[in-house]
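Appendix B, Record 12. Input sequence as logged:
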Amino acid sequence: AGPPIHKSATSVVIFADDIKAIDDYRKTFQKITEGLEDAVLYKGEQFLKSMNDLGIGFDQVIADDKFDQFDVNGDGKMDEDEFCKFCRSSLDRDMERRVVIKFMVEREQWEREIKSRNEFKLESKYIVDVLRIYSTEPEEDQKNPLMQHMPITKEMADKFSFALTHEASEFKAYSNAIVMLGADRNLDTIFRSERPALHTIRALMSDVGDALRHLHENNLIHGDLKMMNVVRVNDKLRLIDFDAAVRITKRDADPMKGGTIHYVGAKFSSGILPPEMIGRINDVESGFGPDGKSKHVLHQDMKNYKKYFTENRDGEENHSVLAQLWDKVKPKHSMKHGFYAVKSFRPEKTHKRDERVKDERKLAAEIRRKAGLDEVAVEAEEPESLAVPWKQELLPYELIRSSPQYDMWSFGVMLYFMCTGHQLFKSDRDDDLTTVDGLIHLAGWSDDALEEKLKDVDDEAAKEVLKALLKPNVEDRPKDMKEVMDYEFFKARLDQDGSVKDILKRFD
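Logged structural output:
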């Protein structure tokens, strides 16, 4: 293992070498061949599917070539040992698989990482899968003996240089972890190091667009789509970091009819947020001082906001983490315009959420009964939200419903950077806006502001799709990612793919 590759108030990520990868490869083979008369993989579609399950994502031509390399007998069959040799060659480095371990403070964050992948049946060719999970919390019965050295001990903290930003003693709070396949590079590093030409940018962003469409078609939005959360694994871009993911809210969702409203903003990077996510908070109001004279005092909205994000809800939350949370969400002040902040919220603790949702459903049923609505068709109860707001009534703004258009804006921010080489809004290394002027500019985003920014985009086809993705009004953005991928900018990718396949056919 090595030093952290990412650190924040709620998570730490490190690289590690997984010497037990061979066990996973054998389990994958057994799962794929389960129920078959002979436990072998056959050349063709079956082997290609196994590649997709592993997240390798070859096309059929390359898959067949790889199969032939490891089909020792040349009989068109691959047994378990041959399959494991193939996996070690394709996925391992010096016979050890490079993985990343993400340690998390919040159990709810950890749950979203796992549930978003498992419950929504996301395919490995679009996302980086979780290989193992671990939690030291008593409710969790999924403890894995392979991960018995977590959470982080003081010795590990010293070894990984975690104490650069945290006291080692605080790492007992990082009691939840997931293990994932290690990536080659993220999209930000790819862009800055490899300087891709426009046709390569088109191919890269097509991978991202296809992955995003897959999420949306499975009723999930990513919630924090940015360059750092797109990584290259086995020469294909995939999405990571699903701790901001939420279900898509149905347009006609009505809690009184069993529908569920899902909200975005529990976790965010303000530099990639759409305009509707920024709000102004009242800061002062008229009042009276101790001497009885009229004066301006701190507005109740601001008092509620600070209390909301700094209160230790159950007396067990880490003080350092709370301080960093407040630093993240603290409103930025302008002498002329007042205070601006992201319309964020804190998710309920899991056990509290379950109790509240149960009570609310009982109450809604009782209200329907008293109102004589028993005969009205009621929607089937939806699965619980991945992030239920805690004490929503204290917030001085309306929360924003989840929708595909939320991710589309972030996709547009990413594409704009790839096409111009500079950010849509000046952001720091964590993709957060650095000044109040940035928040004000975003909150007041307009068609005129968009047109001004598009002057820096040379390619007309890119301008066309960016104009659709970065619309100020959420209702004016494309209805889904299929519509986005049908724009001329991405269609050119299909033409290029076709020509490449024609060339390959000549060598058959």
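The radius of gyration is 25 Å.
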